[in-house]
Amino acid sequence: MVDAPRNTRQRRAVVAILEDLDGFASAQEIHDILKRRGESVGLSTVYRSLQVLADAAEVDALRNDDGEVLYRQCSAGHHHHLVCRSCGRTVEIEGPSVERWADKIADENGFRDVAHTLEIFGTCSSCPA
Amino acid sequence: MVDAPRNTRQRRAVVAILEDLDGFASAQEIHDILKRRGESVGLSTVYRSLQVLADAAEVDALRNDDGEVLYRQCSAGHHHHLVCRSCGRTVEIEGPSVERWADKIADENGFRDVAHTLEIFGTCSSCPA
DNA sequence: CACGATTTGACAACGGTTGTCATGACGATT
DNA sequence: AATCGTCATGACAACCGTTGTCAAATCGTG
After folding, report:
1. Cβ within 8 Å of residue A57, ≥6 positions away
2. pLDDT tens-digit profile of A59-103?
3. Measured between alpha carbons, how far is A10 from A34 in angstroms, rounded to an integer?
4. Residues with Cβ < 8 Å from B20, sequence gap 6 or more?
5. Is residue B17 within 8 Å of residue B30, measured between CB atoms?
6. B68 vs A5, which has greater pLDDT?
7. Are A116 and B113 in contact (CB < 8 Å)?
8. Beta carbon of A3 within 7 Å of strand C?
9. Which pTM was predicted?
10. Strand ranges, E, within chain B
């Protein structure tokens, strides 16, 4: 049995930000937002909190084109994302047929321990060109 | 009209490596292979050559879980990859129905300038667990 | 061959992320 | 409420892949 993480002010603050945001954000963005709100939390702590949350599958993580990792509080279960490149606004999407297709392709080629990444990026209707 | 790039020993060497490899490899791996073959090429030059090739769509680039960019000489046209996490061996795959599905999802949600990433990772049959 | 423009390569700088470690906070137990 | 072991925090340095810098070397055209 693993000990539950401690309920610290900092961890609560990070979780609160994630609950407020509806799109993906980087660790540094979250750190900036916290600073602006006057609830300053060390950058290392923000990174660590997000890692813990991601490991516990309480947040989703993905990498943007620049190699930054973005985090978002998502609903449980396997799903993918339609993400606005400009503002981060995100729509969760599901594609059962895609899942089956990916598994079948991998199986046909003798690959095991299969995982896949699938994200759709675009510009959302409220963002300028 | 843009000037054609110069035909230097270094660029030829990088292209030759890409032709030999059948899987994805990082810039640093390619740099190491060149050094081992005695055709030493500066690391900056390897990075620049790969950038140029990727911009010209002569090689595909993708990011692994660690955030490293991997390169591979691929066939022309839009396709995805089934990649061995262990050895990099790669199978090019196509999924016309997935393409249509992704475009439809984006359109339904009012997103434009849409692109998607889709890669399947696994362990291939010739690699140990 | 000579010359100008491009490319190279050693090195420094950059940016996101992770490690370090002394200090501080949590919370179970008295 | 006070004590205490343990875990979390945060300032900072280190890391690692990648990109920028710039003098020297190379390409290929005239």
Report:
1. A76
2. 999 999 899 999 999 999 999 999 998 888 999 999 999 999 999
3. 10
4. none
5. yes
6. B68
7. no
8. no
9. 0.92
10. 25-26, 59-63, 69-73, 80-84, 90-93, 112-123
